[in-house]
Fold this sequence. Notes:
By secondary structure, the protein is mostly helical. 60% of the residues lie in helices and 3% in strands.
Amino acid sequence: MIKIYDYYERNVNKNDFYYYTFNKEIELYFTFNEDFSYFDEEAIMSRFKMLTYPANELPEHECIEFIAIAFYLHNEGYYIDLFPNFLNRPTGVNDFSLTIRKYIIKQEGSYGVPVPWESRRTLADSMKF
């Protein structure tokens, strides 16, 4: 069982990008909320992909969960095949979801055409770590 906030607390460094950029939000969130638990790394990667699915609005807990998972993956030496530098200096989940959209537009050359949510989910599911 992997508890993502517990992992973050034990491994974050004050000179780390994650600490500098997200620590206040993470600490505040987990002051009032329970840790996210995952069975194993496969479950963590699967959840990361699901969090990148397009949505009109994401609740705070999913935004925090996304960054905490990104920290875990980065700290464990993972990278995303299609976006190899993302975990080094992540943005929020909304920005990353838009990055997926832009990637699809560039690959398909479909500028000015809406990207179906299904295409974005399919790309998210195909990401390899």
